[in-house]
Amino acid sequence: MTVENDAELEQLKQKRMLEMRRQTAAEGEQAKVDGAKQAALRLILEPEARQRLTNIRMIKPEFAEQVELQLIQLAQSGRVKALITDLELKQLLMQIAPKKKDFNIKRI
Description:
- By secondary structure, the protein is mostly helical.
- It contains four helices and no strands.
């Protein structure tokens, strides 16, 4: 009975080690992708605009991801001729940002 328990325990350990290796590999790939994305953004955005995007990432990470991807696509298609300033980024964000609904409450 102890031999079976030891064999099961060893199997569980091996399975867990394999899962940890896979997770580490996936995290490494994600780090590479993030590094490449940040390098591309350094070529596209002025420092103030990059800081604004970093601030947005803290509040709305999904929205920041969407904006970053769009900026990179614009640069890859050749539509970005010079570094994007903070003011230009603000204008772009206003165009991309989802429209908020206005709610009017009327008291009777």
